[in-house]
Amino acid sequence: MRIIFIVLFALHMLYAQVMNQKMILSANLATEDAAQSLYDAEKFFQENTQANALRKMHKLSVDMELLEPYVLVTVQPITSLNVKNKLHYLLQSKFPQNFVVDNIKKVVKKAKNQPKMIKNPISTATKLKPKVAQKLQPTPSASQQVDKSTSQVKKNSFVTKIEQFWHSLDSEWLGLIFLALAGFLLVYRSAKQISKIKSLQKEVSKYQNKIEGEMNTMGDKHA
After folding, report:
1. Are strands 61-67 and 70-78 parallel, antiparallel or unpaired?
2. Residues 23, 80: contact at Cβ < 8 Å?
């Protein structure tokens, strides 16, 4: 019984912990590609009933953020591991390269006279100032950084697959796994106790047979 309470408490602490993270769906150098990614994300949340319900329940917002020289499409705020796993599972078909980072305001830099959030995906490319749009165009150094990042991702493909498998697990499945583990431990403990009781019974029966044999021998001698 104690094991069940411990497992349930661990599950509660695991899924009730408060987080402050954001999920990055895409990072583009061109504003047109970023606007298309934002449009695809909004369309996905509207068409997918599970994603739409999750968005309404946890008040998730899909936005564009400027992190020079990239334009990021993000989903935030992610406040629990349960929301994180569900989002990753639902979005991995549409945005397979999505990943989660801590929502630290200092990381995102604002361009001068440019708002942090870009709400309208259709008019994004036309509203950006020419200087900002020029900064967001691909450069040789940025291409080299992307190539290095790609090679690093290939090296860590095994770790990535493990992380994707972990995030694809839904909270219900994780709960069932923990409960199954608790049940296995209880069954193992009960079987161990039963085996101990049986061994004690065997020893007691042997001792009783020995005493009965000695008493019978003594009775025969006196007779």
Report:
1. antiparallel
2. no
